Task: inverse folding
Protein backbone atom coordinates (compact mmCIF):
# COMPACT_ATOMS: atom_id res chain seq x y z
CA UNK A 1 0.00 0.00 0.00
CA UNK A 2 3.03 2.24 0.49
CA UNK A 3 5.40 2.52 -2.46
CA UNK A 4 9.15 2.96 -2.78
CA UNK A 5 9.98 -0.20 -0.86
CA UNK A 6 9.99 1.67 2.46
CA UNK A 7 10.40 -0.39 5.61
CA UNK A 8 8.25 0.46 8.63
CA UNK A 9 9.98 2.79 11.06
CA UNK A 10 13.00 3.54 8.84
CA UNK A 11 13.86 7.24 8.76
CA UNK A 12 14.04 8.73 5.28
CA UNK A 13 15.54 12.14 4.69
CA UNK A 14 13.24 13.84 2.22
CA UNK A 15 13.30 17.28 0.61
CA UNK A 16 10.93 19.81 2.07
CA UNK A 17 7.59 20.00 0.30
CA UNK A 18 5.61 23.23 0.61
CA UNK A 19 2.20 22.94 2.20
CA UNK A 20 0.42 24.03 -0.96
CA UNK A 21 1.66 20.92 -2.81
CA UNK A 22 -1.74 19.30 -2.25
CA UNK A 23 -3.59 19.68 -5.52
CA UNK A 24 -0.42 20.01 -7.59
CA UNK A 25 0.39 17.70 -10.47
CA UNK A 26 3.35 15.30 -10.43
CA UNK A 27 4.77 12.46 -12.49
CA UNK A 28 6.32 9.23 -11.35
CA UNK A 29 7.81 6.57 -13.61
CA UNK A 30 6.04 8.08 -16.60
CA UNK A 31 2.59 8.17 -14.95
CA UNK A 32 0.73 11.39 -14.09
CA UNK A 33 -0.99 11.98 -10.74
CA UNK A 34 -2.53 14.67 -8.55
CA UNK A 35 -1.24 15.20 -5.02
CA UNK A 36 -4.10 14.74 -2.53
CA UNK A 37 -2.18 14.56 0.75
CA UNK A 38 1.18 15.76 2.11
CA UNK A 39 2.35 14.54 5.51
CA UNK A 40 3.27 11.57 7.69
CA UNK A 41 1.84 8.08 7.39
CA UNK A 42 2.48 6.33 10.74
CA UNK A 43 4.16 4.14 11.75
CA UNK A 44 6.66 5.03 9.00
CA UNK A 45 8.88 8.08 9.48
CA UNK A 46 9.30 10.98 7.12
CA UNK A 47 7.11 12.74 4.61
CA UNK A 48 4.76 11.05 2.16
CA UNK A 49 2.69 12.26 -0.78
CA UNK A 50 -0.74 10.72 -1.19
CA UNK A 51 -1.46 10.78 -4.93
CA UNK A 52 -4.45 9.97 -7.12
CA UNK A 53 -3.26 8.51 -10.42
CA UNK A 54 -4.73 9.53 -13.78
CA UNK A 55 -4.55 5.84 -14.62
CA UNK A 56 -6.37 4.11 -11.71
CA UNK A 57 -4.75 0.78 -12.58
CA UNK A 58 -1.47 2.28 -11.33
CA UNK A 59 -2.83 2.66 -7.80
CA UNK A 60 -3.12 0.39 -4.79
CA UNK A 61 -5.90 1.78 -2.56
CA UNK A 62 -8.51 4.53 -2.15
CA UNK A 63 -6.48 6.84 0.11
CA UNK A 64 -6.73 4.80 3.30
CA UNK A 65 -3.94 3.07 5.20
CA UNK A 66 -4.02 1.17 8.50
CA UNK A 67 -7.67 2.04 9.03
CA UNK A 68 -7.04 5.80 8.63
CA UNK A 69 -8.30 7.80 5.65
CA UNK A 70 -5.74 10.33 4.41
CA UNK A 71 -7.45 11.34 1.15
CA UNK A 72 -10.18 10.15 -1.20
CA UNK A 73 -10.10 8.79 -4.74
CA UNK A 74 -12.91 8.35 -7.21
CA UNK A 75 -11.59 4.89 -8.03
CA UNK A 76 -11.31 2.34 -5.19
CA UNK A 77 -7.74 1.52 -6.20
CA UNK A 78 -6.68 4.84 -7.72
CA UNK A 79 -4.32 6.04 -4.97
CA UNK A 80 -0.84 5.45 -3.62
CA UNK A 81 1.62 6.88 -1.10
CA UNK A 82 5.00 7.83 -2.59
CA UNK A 83 8.08 9.58 -1.29
CA UNK A 84 8.62 13.15 -2.58
CA UNK A 85 12.02 12.14 -3.96
CA UNK A 86 10.30 9.68 -6.29
CA UNK A 87 8.17 12.25 -8.12
CA UNK A 88 8.83 15.04 -10.58
CA UNK A 89 7.04 18.35 -10.26
CA UNK A 90 8.06 19.43 -13.75
CA UNK A 91 9.67 22.57 -15.14
CA UNK A 92 8.46 26.00 -16.13
CA UNK A 93 7.52 26.90 -19.71
CA UNK A 94 10.79 28.60 -20.68
CA UNK A 95 12.92 25.80 -19.27
CA UNK A 96 10.91 23.32 -21.34
CA UNK A 97 11.29 25.49 -24.45
CA UNK A 98 15.06 25.58 -23.99
CA UNK A 99 15.23 21.83 -23.42
CA UNK A 100 13.31 21.12 -26.60
CA UNK A 101 14.52 23.83 -28.96
CA UNK A 102 18.06 24.87 -28.03
CA UNK A 103 19.66 21.69 -29.35
CA UNK A 104 17.58 21.95 -32.51
CA UNK A 105 18.71 25.56 -32.98
CA UNK A 106 22.35 24.55 -32.54
CA UNK A 107 21.93 21.86 -35.16
CA UNK A 108 20.36 24.25 -37.64
CA UNK A 109 23.09 26.85 -37.10
CA UNK A 110 25.90 24.32 -37.43
CA UNK A 111 24.43 23.22 -40.75
CA UNK A 112 23.99 26.74 -42.04
CA UNK A 113 27.44 28.06 -41.09
CA UNK A 114 30.59 25.96 -41.05
CA UNK A 115 32.14 27.45 -37.93
CA UNK A 116 33.43 25.09 -35.29
CA UNK A 117 33.79 27.71 -32.53
CA UNK A 118 31.35 26.93 -29.73
CA UNK A 119 31.45 30.58 -28.69
CA UNK A 120 30.19 31.76 -32.06
CA UNK A 121 27.47 29.13 -32.15
CA UNK A 122 26.35 30.08 -28.64
CA UNK A 123 26.25 33.73 -29.65
CA UNK A 124 24.24 32.77 -32.68
CA UNK A 125 21.63 31.13 -30.50
CA UNK A 126 21.55 34.13 -28.20
CA UNK A 127 21.11 36.49 -31.14
CA UNK A 128 18.48 34.40 -32.79
CA UNK A 129 16.58 33.27 -29.69
CA UNK A 130 13.08 31.84 -29.99
CA UNK A 131 11.30 35.02 -31.09
CA UNK A 132 10.47 33.67 -34.54
CA UNK A 133 8.88 30.41 -33.41
CA UNK A 134 5.27 30.26 -34.75
CA UNK A 135 4.55 27.06 -32.80
CA UNK A 136 5.87 25.54 -29.60
CA UNK A 137 5.38 21.81 -29.06
CA UNK A 138 5.85 20.81 -25.43
CA UNK A 139 3.76 17.64 -25.24
CA UNK A 140 4.95 15.34 -22.41
CA UNK A 141 7.48 17.97 -21.33
CA UNK A 142 6.00 18.28 -17.81
CA UNK A 143 5.39 22.03 -17.97
CA UNK A 144 4.11 23.19 -14.56
CA UNK A 145 3.80 26.96 -14.94
CA UNK A 146 5.04 30.13 -16.66
CA UNK A 147 8.34 30.84 -14.92
CA UNK A 148 9.61 34.38 -14.33
CA UNK A 149 7.10 37.19 -14.84
CA UNK A 150 6.99 38.59 -18.37
CA UNK A 151 9.74 36.37 -19.78
CA UNK A 152 7.44 34.38 -22.07
CA UNK A 153 6.31 37.56 -23.83
CA UNK A 154 9.96 38.46 -24.43
CA UNK A 155 11.19 35.02 -25.47
CA UNK A 156 8.39 33.54 -27.64
CA UNK A 157 6.16 36.46 -28.59
CA UNK A 158 5.02 35.10 -31.97
CA UNK A 159 3.63 31.72 -30.96
CA UNK A 160 0.32 30.94 -32.68
CA UNK A 161 0.06 27.23 -31.80
CA UNK A 162 1.00 25.78 -28.41
CA UNK A 163 0.98 22.11 -27.41
CA UNK A 164 1.10 21.44 -23.67
CA UNK A 165 -0.58 18.03 -23.67
CA UNK A 166 0.32 15.65 -20.85
CA UNK A 167 1.86 18.48 -18.84
CA UNK A 168 1.92 19.01 -15.07
CA UNK A 169 -0.25 22.12 -15.10
CA UNK A 170 -2.64 21.96 -12.16
CA UNK A 171 -5.33 24.54 -12.89
CA UNK A 172 -6.61 27.00 -15.45
CA UNK A 173 -4.77 29.80 -13.64
CA UNK A 174 -1.50 28.05 -14.58
CA UNK A 175 -2.57 27.91 -18.22
CA UNK A 176 -3.74 31.51 -18.18
CA UNK A 177 -0.43 32.73 -16.72
CA UNK A 178 1.27 31.35 -19.85
CA UNK A 179 -1.25 32.23 -22.56
CA UNK A 180 -1.76 35.82 -21.37
CA UNK A 181 1.78 36.49 -22.58
CA UNK A 182 1.05 35.06 -26.07
CA UNK A 183 -1.10 37.71 -27.73
CA UNK A 184 -1.30 35.90 -31.09
CA UNK A 185 -2.15 32.44 -29.75
CA UNK A 186 -4.80 30.82 -31.96
CA UNK A 187 -4.43 27.10 -31.22
CA UNK A 188 -3.95 25.35 -27.87
CA UNK A 189 -3.52 21.62 -27.24
CA UNK A 190 -4.14 20.59 -23.61
CA UNK A 191 -5.05 16.92 -23.98
CA UNK A 192 -4.41 14.47 -21.13
CA UNK A 193 -4.31 17.09 -18.38
CA UNK A 194 -6.30 17.46 -15.15
CA UNK A 195 -7.06 21.15 -14.69
CA UNK A 196 -8.94 22.47 -11.66
CA UNK A 197 -11.59 25.01 -12.49
CA UNK A 198 -11.04 28.64 -11.70
CA UNK A 199 -13.41 30.59 -9.44
CA UNK A 200 -13.08 33.87 -11.38
CA UNK A 201 -13.54 33.10 -15.07
CA UNK A 202 -13.82 36.72 -16.17
CA UNK A 203 -10.29 37.40 -14.96
CA UNK A 204 -8.90 35.08 -17.64
CA UNK A 205 -10.86 36.09 -20.76
CA UNK A 206 -7.99 38.28 -22.01
CA UNK A 207 -5.62 35.32 -21.71
CA UNK A 208 -7.47 33.54 -24.53
CA UNK A 209 -8.80 36.48 -26.53
CA UNK A 210 -7.34 35.26 -29.86
CA UNK A 211 -7.89 31.52 -29.28
CA UNK A 212 -9.75 29.78 -32.09
CA UNK A 213 -8.78 26.09 -31.71
CA UNK A 214 -8.77 24.22 -28.38
CA UNK A 215 -8.11 20.51 -27.78
CA UNK A 216 -9.15 19.07 -24.39
CA UNK A 217 -9.18 15.36 -25.18
CA UNK A 218 -8.93 12.88 -22.27
CA UNK A 219 -9.05 15.55 -19.56
CA UNK A 220 -11.67 13.84 -17.38
CA UNK A 221 -14.17 16.63 -18.07
CA UNK A 222 -17.95 16.71 -17.86
CA UNK A 223 -20.06 18.88 -20.16
CA UNK A 224 -21.10 21.27 -17.32
CA UNK A 225 -17.39 21.82 -16.63
CA UNK A 226 -16.79 22.63 -20.30
CA UNK A 227 -19.64 25.14 -20.25
CA UNK A 228 -18.33 26.63 -17.01
CA UNK A 229 -14.97 27.30 -18.67
CA UNK A 230 -16.42 28.45 -22.01
CA UNK A 231 -16.65 32.20 -21.15
CA UNK A 232 -12.83 32.23 -21.09
CA UNK A 233 -12.79 31.46 -24.84
CA UNK A 234 -14.91 34.18 -26.45
CA UNK A 235 -13.59 33.67 -30.02
CA UNK A 236 -13.36 29.85 -30.03
CA UNK A 237 -14.26 28.21 -33.36
CA UNK A 238 -12.99 24.62 -33.02
CA UNK A 239 -13.34 22.56 -29.82
CA UNK A 240 -12.36 18.92 -29.32
CA UNK A 241 -13.39 17.22 -26.06
CA UNK A 242 -12.97 13.59 -27.08
CA UNK A 243 -12.73 10.70 -24.60
CA UNK A 244 -13.89 12.58 -21.51
CA UNK A 245 -16.72 11.89 -19.03
CA UNK A 246 -19.39 13.71 -21.04
CA UNK A 247 -22.81 12.09 -20.81
CA UNK A 248 -25.69 14.56 -20.55
CA UNK A 249 -25.41 17.52 -22.90
CA UNK A 250 -26.95 20.74 -21.58
CA UNK A 251 -27.87 23.62 -23.90
CA UNK A 252 -24.87 25.93 -24.38
CA UNK A 253 -26.99 29.07 -23.97
CA UNK A 254 -24.78 32.14 -24.11
CA UNK A 255 -21.63 30.00 -24.43
CA UNK A 256 -19.56 28.76 -27.37
CA UNK A 257 -21.69 30.81 -29.73
CA UNK A 258 -18.82 31.29 -32.21
CA UNK A 259 -18.13 27.54 -32.41
CA UNK A 260 -17.94 26.07 -35.93
CA UNK A 261 -16.55 22.61 -35.15
CA UNK A 262 -17.18 20.33 -32.15
CA UNK A 263 -15.96 16.78 -31.51
CA UNK A 264 -17.41 14.79 -28.63
CA UNK A 265 -16.19 11.47 -30.02
CA UNK A 266 -15.55 8.71 -27.49
CA UNK A 267 -17.96 10.04 -24.85
CA UNK A 268 -20.91 7.91 -23.59
CA UNK A 269 -23.60 10.41 -24.54
CA UNK A 270 -27.18 10.32 -23.39
CA UNK A 271 -28.86 10.40 -26.78
CA UNK A 272 -31.69 12.80 -26.11
CA UNK A 273 -29.16 15.50 -25.29
CA UNK A 274 -27.62 15.66 -28.77
CA UNK A 275 -30.35 17.99 -30.03
CA UNK A 276 -29.37 20.55 -27.40
CA UNK A 277 -26.23 21.24 -29.40
CA UNK A 278 -28.51 22.86 -31.98
CA UNK A 279 -28.26 25.95 -29.77
CA UNK A 280 -24.83 26.51 -31.39
CA UNK A 281 -25.92 28.72 -34.32
CA UNK A 282 -22.68 28.53 -36.35
CA UNK A 283 -21.91 24.84 -35.90
CA UNK A 284 -20.75 23.41 -39.23
CA UNK A 285 -18.91 20.22 -38.22
CA UNK A 286 -20.08 17.79 -35.52
CA UNK A 287 -18.29 14.55 -34.61
CA UNK A 288 -20.54 12.09 -32.75
CA UNK A 289 -18.50 8.95 -33.51
CA UNK A 290 -18.03 6.29 -30.80
CA UNK A 291 -20.72 7.80 -28.57
CA UNK A 292 -23.17 4.88 -28.55
CA UNK A 293 -25.61 6.79 -30.76
CA UNK A 294 -28.49 4.66 -32.03
CA UNK A 295 -31.24 7.19 -32.70
CA UNK A 296 -31.83 10.83 -33.46
CA UNK A 297 -35.16 12.53 -34.16
CA UNK A 298 -36.11 15.96 -35.47
CA UNK A 299 -39.72 16.05 -34.39
CA UNK A 300 -40.23 19.66 -35.44
CA UNK A 301 -40.92 18.57 -39.03
CA UNK A 302 -42.50 15.60 -40.88
CA UNK A 303 -40.59 13.12 -43.08
CA UNK A 304 -39.23 14.67 -46.26
CA UNK A 305 -39.12 18.20 -44.83
CA UNK A 306 -36.23 20.25 -43.45
CA UNK A 307 -35.65 20.83 -39.76
CA UNK A 308 -34.85 24.29 -38.41
CA UNK A 309 -32.25 22.72 -36.13
CA UNK A 310 -28.53 22.65 -37.02
CA UNK A 311 -29.12 24.99 -39.93
CA UNK A 312 -25.38 25.53 -40.56
CA UNK A 313 -24.28 21.88 -40.12
CA UNK A 314 -22.50 20.60 -43.25
CA UNK A 315 -20.29 17.78 -41.86
CA UNK A 316 -21.51 15.03 -39.52
CA UNK A 317 -19.62 11.97 -38.27
CA UNK A 318 -21.72 9.17 -36.74
CA UNK A 319 -19.26 6.33 -37.40
CA UNK A 320 -18.71 3.41 -35.01
CA UNK A 321 -22.08 3.71 -33.31
CA UNK A 322 -25.21 1.56 -32.94
CA UNK A 323 -27.33 2.99 -35.76
CA UNK A 324 -29.39 0.10 -37.15
CA UNK A 325 -32.66 1.69 -38.31
CA UNK A 326 -32.99 3.31 -41.73
CA UNK A 327 -35.42 5.79 -40.16
CA UNK A 328 -32.37 7.44 -38.54
CA UNK A 329 -30.93 8.08 -42.01
CA UNK A 330 -34.27 9.60 -43.06
CA UNK A 331 -34.03 11.90 -40.04
CA UNK A 332 -30.52 12.98 -41.10
CA UNK A 333 -31.98 13.85 -44.49
CA UNK A 334 -33.92 16.61 -42.74
CA UNK A 335 -30.68 18.53 -42.06
CA UNK A 336 -30.81 21.38 -44.58
CA UNK A 337 -27.06 21.84 -45.16
CA UNK A 338 -25.64 18.32 -44.66
CA UNK A 339 -23.14 17.59 -47.45
CA UNK A 340 -20.53 15.35 -45.73
CA UNK A 341 -21.45 12.23 -43.75
CA UNK A 342 -19.25 9.56 -42.17
CA UNK A 343 -21.31 6.50 -41.25
CA UNK A 344 -18.89 3.57 -41.10
CA UNK A 345 -19.05 0.90 -38.42
CA UNK A 346 -22.79 0.94 -37.77
CA UNK A 347 -25.42 -1.81 -38.00
CA UNK A 348 -27.31 -0.71 -41.09
CA UNK A 349 -28.12 -3.65 -43.37
CA UNK A 350 -30.04 -4.10 -46.62
CA UNK A 351 -32.50 -6.86 -47.45
CA UNK A 352 -29.93 -8.59 -49.67
CA UNK A 353 -27.14 -8.35 -47.07
CA UNK A 354 -24.87 -6.62 -49.56
CA UNK A 355 -22.66 -3.79 -48.15
CA UNK A 356 -22.72 -2.15 -51.58
CA UNK A 357 -26.50 -1.87 -51.34
CA UNK A 358 -26.17 -0.16 -47.95
CA UNK A 359 -23.83 2.36 -49.57
CA UNK A 360 -26.33 2.96 -52.38
CA UNK A 361 -29.26 3.36 -50.00
CA UNK A 362 -27.39 6.03 -48.03
CA UNK A 363 -26.74 7.98 -51.22
CA UNK A 364 -30.32 7.63 -52.43
CA UNK A 365 -31.88 8.66 -49.13
CA UNK A 366 -29.58 11.67 -48.59
CA UNK A 367 -30.11 13.81 -51.66
CA UNK A 368 -27.86 16.71 -50.68
CA UNK A 369 -24.88 14.53 -49.77
CA UNK A 370 -21.63 15.31 -51.64
CA UNK A 371 -19.19 13.13 -49.65
CA UNK A 372 -19.95 9.78 -48.00
CA UNK A 373 -17.28 8.24 -45.76
CA UNK A 374 -14.74 10.76 -47.09
CA UNK A 375 -15.34 9.73 -50.73
CA UNK A 376 -16.91 12.14 -53.20
CA UNK A 377 -20.21 11.02 -54.70
CA UNK A 378 -19.94 11.46 -58.46
CA UNK A 379 -22.93 12.16 -60.70
CA UNK A 380 -23.00 8.66 -62.22
CA UNK A 381 -22.82 7.03 -58.82
CA UNK A 382 -25.72 9.12 -57.49
CA UNK A 383 -27.82 8.48 -60.58
CA UNK A 384 -27.22 4.73 -60.36
CA UNK A 385 -28.03 4.62 -56.65
CA UNK A 386 -31.25 6.60 -57.06
CA UNK A 387 -32.45 4.57 -60.05
CA UNK A 388 -31.75 1.33 -58.20
CA UNK A 389 -33.65 2.70 -55.21
CA UNK A 390 -36.70 3.39 -57.37
CA UNK A 391 -36.62 -0.17 -58.73
CA UNK A 392 -35.85 -1.75 -55.35
CA UNK A 393 -38.97 -0.34 -53.67
CA UNK A 394 -41.21 0.01 -56.72
CA UNK A 395 -43.29 -3.03 -55.82
CA UNK A 396 -43.94 -1.61 -52.32
CA UNK A 397 -44.87 1.72 -53.90
CA UNK A 398 -47.49 0.04 -56.12
CA UNK A 399 -48.91 -1.94 -53.21
CA UNK A 400 -49.13 1.32 -51.20
CA UNK A 401 -51.33 2.88 -53.88
CA UNK A 402 -48.73 4.05 -56.38
CA UNK A 403 -49.10 7.37 -58.18
CA UNK A 404 -48.34 10.62 -56.37
CA UNK A 405 -50.27 9.74 -53.20
CA UNK A 406 -49.12 6.41 -51.78
CA UNK A 407 -49.94 5.50 -48.20
CA UNK A 408 -48.68 7.56 -45.30
CA UNK A 409 -46.78 4.52 -44.06
CA UNK A 410 -44.86 4.23 -47.34
CA UNK A 411 -44.00 7.93 -47.35
CA UNK A 412 -42.78 7.63 -43.77
CA UNK A 413 -40.41 4.82 -44.78
CA UNK A 414 -39.35 6.34 -48.11
CA UNK A 415 -39.70 10.13 -47.85
CA UNK A 416 -37.56 10.74 -50.99
CA UNK A 417 -39.35 8.26 -53.24
CA UNK A 418 -41.80 10.69 -54.86
CA UNK A 419 -38.99 13.20 -55.39
CA UNK A 420 -37.00 10.53 -57.24
CA UNK A 421 -40.01 9.62 -59.39
CA UNK A 422 -40.37 13.28 -60.32
CA UNK A 423 -36.67 13.28 -61.21
CA UNK A 424 -36.48 10.05 -63.24
CA UNK A 425 -40.06 8.97 -63.89
CA UNK A 426 -42.01 6.03 -62.46
CA UNK A 427 -40.45 2.58 -62.84
CA UNK A 428 -41.79 0.31 -65.56
CA UNK A 429 -43.47 -2.92 -64.55
CA UNK A 430 -40.65 -5.06 -65.91
CA UNK A 431 -38.18 -3.23 -63.68
CA UNK A 432 -40.07 -4.10 -60.52
CA UNK A 433 -39.12 -7.78 -60.57
CA UNK A 434 -36.93 -8.79 -57.70
CA UNK A 435 -33.37 -9.54 -58.78
CA UNK A 436 -32.17 -13.13 -58.77
CA UNK A 437 -30.22 -14.16 -55.65
CA UNK A 438 -26.64 -13.02 -55.96
CA UNK A 439 -24.02 -15.49 -57.15
CA UNK A 440 -24.97 -19.12 -57.45
CA UNK A 441 -22.73 -21.40 -55.46
CA UNK A 442 -20.91 -22.71 -58.52
CA UNK A 443 -20.68 -19.35 -60.31
CA UNK A 444 -17.27 -18.38 -61.65
CA UNK A 445 -16.12 -14.80 -61.13
CA UNK A 446 -13.52 -12.99 -63.18
CA UNK A 447 -11.43 -11.11 -60.64
CA UNK A 448 -8.48 -8.78 -61.19
CA UNK A 449 -5.87 -8.84 -58.43
CA UNK A 450 -4.03 -5.49 -58.20
CA UNK A 451 -1.07 -4.49 -56.03
CA UNK A 452 -1.33 -0.77 -55.15
CA UNK A 453 1.85 -0.76 -53.02
CA UNK A 454 3.98 -2.44 -55.71
CA UNK A 455 3.99 -0.22 -58.80
CA UNK A 456 6.18 -2.64 -60.76
CA UNK A 457 3.86 -5.63 -60.38
CA UNK A 458 1.23 -5.95 -63.08
CA UNK A 459 -2.39 -6.84 -62.20
CA UNK A 460 -3.30 -10.53 -62.44
CA UNK A 461 -6.65 -11.71 -63.79
CA UNK A 462 -8.10 -14.97 -62.46
CA UNK A 463 -11.38 -16.87 -62.54
CA UNK A 464 -12.44 -18.12 -59.10
CA UNK A 465 -15.56 -19.65 -57.60
CA UNK A 466 -17.88 -17.28 -55.76
CA UNK A 467 -18.05 -19.90 -52.99
CA UNK A 468 -14.27 -19.83 -52.44
CA UNK A 469 -13.34 -18.78 -48.91
CA UNK A 470 -10.90 -15.91 -48.46
CA UNK A 471 -8.36 -18.25 -46.86
CA UNK A 472 -8.08 -20.21 -50.13
CA UNK A 473 -7.82 -16.99 -52.11
CA UNK A 474 -4.84 -16.04 -49.94
CA UNK A 475 -3.36 -19.50 -50.60
CA UNK A 476 -3.66 -18.86 -54.32
CA UNK A 477 -1.95 -15.49 -53.87
CA UNK A 478 0.82 -17.11 -51.83
CA UNK A 479 1.63 -19.39 -54.76
CA UNK A 480 1.70 -16.38 -57.09
CA UNK A 481 3.53 -13.90 -54.86
CA UNK A 482 5.50 -16.05 -52.42
CA UNK A 483 4.19 -13.84 -49.61
CA UNK A 484 2.88 -15.66 -46.48
CA UNK A 485 -0.91 -15.70 -46.38
CA UNK A 486 -0.88 -14.29 -42.83
CA UNK A 487 0.80 -11.12 -44.11
CA UNK A 488 -1.76 -10.47 -46.85
CA UNK A 489 -4.44 -7.82 -46.43
CA UNK A 490 -7.29 -7.73 -48.96
CA UNK A 491 -9.87 -5.15 -49.96
CA UNK A 492 -11.96 -4.83 -53.11
CA UNK A 493 -13.44 -2.19 -55.38
CA UNK A 494 -16.29 -2.28 -57.86
CA UNK A 495 -16.74 -0.30 -61.10
CA UNK A 496 -20.30 0.31 -59.91
CA UNK A 497 -19.04 2.43 -56.99
CA UNK A 498 -15.84 4.15 -58.01
CA UNK A 499 -13.73 5.56 -55.21
CA UNK A 500 -15.08 3.20 -52.53
CA UNK A 501 -12.88 0.44 -51.08
CA UNK A 502 -14.48 -2.42 -49.11
CA UNK A 503 -12.63 -4.44 -46.46
CA UNK A 504 -12.27 -8.22 -46.63
CA UNK A 505 -11.67 -8.88 -42.96
CA UNK A 506 -12.42 -12.59 -42.41
CA UNK A 507 -10.47 -15.51 -43.85
CA UNK A 508 -13.33 -17.93 -43.19
CA UNK A 509 -16.02 -16.20 -45.27
CA UNK A 510 -16.63 -16.55 -48.99
CA UNK A 511 -16.26 -14.07 -51.81
CA UNK A 512 -20.03 -14.40 -52.18
CA UNK A 513 -20.50 -13.21 -48.58
CA UNK A 514 -18.65 -9.98 -49.41
CA UNK A 515 -20.86 -9.50 -52.50
CA UNK A 516 -17.85 -9.57 -54.81
CA UNK A 517 -19.11 -9.65 -58.40
CA UNK A 518 -17.77 -10.53 -61.80
CA UNK A 519 -15.37 -7.78 -62.92
CA UNK A 520 -14.50 -6.48 -59.44
CA UNK A 521 -10.91 -5.76 -58.43
CA UNK A 522 -9.25 -7.22 -55.33
CA UNK A 523 -6.47 -5.03 -53.91
CA UNK A 524 -3.62 -6.99 -52.34
CA UNK A 525 -1.27 -5.46 -49.77
CA UNK A 526 1.22 -7.02 -47.39
CA UNK A 527 3.37 -5.90 -44.49
Result:
Amino acid sequence: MIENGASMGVDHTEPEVPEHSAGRRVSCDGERATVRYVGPVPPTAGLWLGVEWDNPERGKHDGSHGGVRYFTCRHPEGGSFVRPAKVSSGVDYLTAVRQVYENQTEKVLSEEISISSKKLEWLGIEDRGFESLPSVLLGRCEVNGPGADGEIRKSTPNVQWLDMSQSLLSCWEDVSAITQQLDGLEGLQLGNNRLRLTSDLSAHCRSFCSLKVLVLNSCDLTWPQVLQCAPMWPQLEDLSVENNNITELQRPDGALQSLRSLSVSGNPLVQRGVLRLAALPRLEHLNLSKTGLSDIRFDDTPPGSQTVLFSALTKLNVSDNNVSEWSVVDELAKLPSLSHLSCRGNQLVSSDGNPKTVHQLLIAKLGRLVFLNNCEIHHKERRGAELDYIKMFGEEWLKAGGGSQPSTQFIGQHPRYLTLIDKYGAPEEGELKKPEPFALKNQLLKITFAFPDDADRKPIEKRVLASMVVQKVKGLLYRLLKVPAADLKLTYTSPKMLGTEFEIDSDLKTLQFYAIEDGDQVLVRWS
Observations:
- Residues 93-112 form the longest helix (20 residues).
- Residues 4-14, 105-127, 435-441 have pLDDT under 50 and may be disordered.
- The CA atoms of residues 108 and 501 lie 43 Å apart.
- The radius of gyration is 30 Å.
